[in-house]
Automatic annotation (TrEMBL):
Gene3D superfamilies: 5'-nuclease, LOTUS domain-like. It comes from the Bacteria. It comes from Aequitasia blattaphilus. Transmembrane segments: none annotated. InterPro entries: LOTUS-like, NYN, OST-HTH/LOTUS_dom. Residues 164-238, 242-313 form the HTH OST-type domain. This is NYN domain-containing protein.
Length: 315
């Protein structure tokens, strides 16, 4: 049986834009049985969480702010975590916060035999990171903000939202990339299980197909192969000619830029205008600047809080 996790989110320290990447990340560790989010919901700054809470079936826990300037979520989240620890109904916890005040909680949960996954922003102190078995930076999960926005192409059928095929394709590519990093192939059954964890109402019949394999065969970036006693595996379809053209476009663009280079924002915008299907994850990267840095003769520098790509100087 797959391990069960409690997902506890500190709304005081985490933006609602991260909820989908968080749930995607947790789908690879096990089944999330508790999903709770803590904050002072009388505060209007928490309003952005409303739709995310409803759409993802997360239980909001009200915690009034008794002292100005103090995180209201701490006490309620810690008490619930300890209650869950003693019930023995989960094998692990995911603590979503950038607040070092949860360091002791993470340590105590580990002492209790729990696996502790921490997820927080890049500003998270090292103490909390070290207290977790695994810590993941939210900005890494998000990757390129523009790319994420393009991937959420949901459609509606009456009153029912159907996840767009481009978003599903992107999710599958991420699953395959994670497995490749661990020298593991991605089976068709695993893809189906992970999609159901991400989207409990996922059903290929809603897209007009009776088999998951037939549905995936319609996705241009995926390829299905049969190996090892007729086991079906899902792979990323490589288009080396397209990738060469993308890299050459970036090289020519940067080479013709002023000496200080071109901002990554401008470069990314014009690259996506030229190559409509460009996604940095298809190249094995989560951040656009890492992809640009991987191209020969180009370096990425920071100037006045902005990142620029420029041609490397020789000699």
């Amino acid at each position: 049986m797959e391990p069960r996790f409690s997902l506890l989110i500190d709304a005081e320290n985490i933006s609602p834009k991260y909820i989908k990447p968080i749930l995607t990340e947790m789908s690879k560790y096990g089944k999330v049985t508790y999903k709770r989010i803590y904050g002072d919901w009388t505060n209007t700054s928490r309003a952005g969480w409303k739709n995310n809470i409803l759409e993802n079936s997360i239980t909001p826990v009200q915690q009034f702010r008794y002292v100005e300037g103090k995180n209201a979520s701490d006490a309620a989240m810690i008490i619930d975590a300890m209650d869950m620890l003693y019930t023995g109904q989960v094998e692990g916890f995911c603590l979503v916060s950038s607040d070092s005040d949860f360091t002791k909680l993470a340590e105590r949960l580990r002492e209790g035999g729990m696996m502790v996954i921490g997820i927080g922003e890049a500003k998270t102190p090292q103490a909390l990171r070290s207290a977790c078995d695994i810590f993941t930076v939210l900005e890494t999960l998000m990757g390129d903000d523009e790319e994420e926005a393009e991937n959420h192409n949901d459609t509606r059928n009456g009153d029912i939202t159907i996840i767009g095929k481009k978003k599903i394709e992107s999710d599958i590519i991420q699953i395959i990339s994670e497995n490749q990093n661990n020298n593991k192939k991605t089976g068709l059954a695993e893809v189906g299980n992970r999609l159901v964890k991400l989207y409990p109402d996922f059903d290929v019949r809603r897209y007009g197909y009776s088999l998951l394999s037939k549905f995936l065969e319609t996705m241009p970036k995926l390829h299905l192969s049969t190996k090892n006693n007729n086991h079906v595996f899902v792979e990323i379809r490589e288009n080396e000619d397209e990738k060469h053209k993308v890299r050459q476009f970036v090289k020519n663009y940067v080479k013709q830029a002023p000496k200080k280079g071109v901002s990554l924002g401008t470069l990314g915008r014009d690259l996506r205008e030229e190559f409509k299907g460009f996604k940095v994850k298809d190249y094995g990267y989560t951040q656009f600047y890492n992809f640009v840095e991987s191209i020969d003769d180009i370096e990425v520098i920071r100037l006045n809080e902005q990142m620029f790509a420029r041609w490397k100087e020789r000699g």
